[in-house]
């Protein structure tokens, strides 16, 4: 699948850098509506050293962070928010359905439900293949850098 946004272009939108950037590519983007992005999970991820030795599992909070970063890209591509920064304002209805392990490719889908001024509410789902790994509602706040 061809990437719509490369890692370099993603870094021009969000401030996250290694080892805390959890979006590798963006495949689909409907500004203000929806994004499909991905994170390739490798055994070289620093968190696998301690989570858990001999049984590597991606921490759930980092799956949620990957979804939040994808949501930030979605919001910050809006003309009025370019050059700003996205903050995670809240989480609701978080459910973890499947473990994420080295070698998995996380597909991050975020759909904006509503946006008022600088606060957005989105439905976010992370998949491995066609299985849901995590789903939640994200509240985001757009602020100045």
Automatic annotation (TrEMBL):
It is an enzyme of class 4 (lyase). The keyword tRNA processing does not apply. InterPro entries: FabA_FabZ, FabZ, HotDog_dom_sf. One of its GO terms (biological process) is fatty acid biosynthetic process. It is found in: Cytoplasm. Its EC number is 4.2.1.59. GO terms for cellular component: cytoplasm; membrane. Belongs to the thioester dehydratase family. FabZ subfamily. Involved in unsaturated fatty acids biosynthesis. Catalyzes the dehydration of short chain beta-hydroxyacyl-ACPs and long chain saturated and unsaturated beta-hydroxyacyl-ACPs. PANTHER family: 3-HYDROXYACYL-[ACYL-CARRIER-PROTEIN] DEHYDRATASE. This is 3-hydroxyacyl-[acyl-carrier-protein] dehydratase FabZ. It comes from Atopococcus tabaci.
């Amino acid at each position: 699948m061809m990437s719509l946004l490369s890692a370099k272009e993603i870094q021009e939108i969000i401030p996250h850098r290694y080892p805390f950037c959890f979006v590798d590519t963006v495949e689909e983007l409907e500004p203000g509506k929806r994004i499909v992005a991905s994170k390739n999970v490798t055994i070289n991820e620093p968190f696998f050293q301690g989570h858990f030795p001999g049984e590597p599992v991606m921490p759930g909070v980092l799956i949620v962070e990957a979804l939040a970063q994808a949501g930030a890209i979605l919001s910050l591509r809006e003309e009025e928010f370019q050059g700003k920064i996205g903050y995670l304002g809240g989480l609701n209805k978080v459910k973890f359905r499947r473990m994420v392990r080295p070698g998995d490719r996380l597909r991050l889908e975020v759909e904006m439900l509503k946006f008022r001024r600088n606060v957005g509410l989105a439905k976010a789902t992370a998949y491995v293949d066609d299985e849901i790994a995590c789903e939640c509602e994200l509240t985001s706040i757009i602020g100045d850098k």
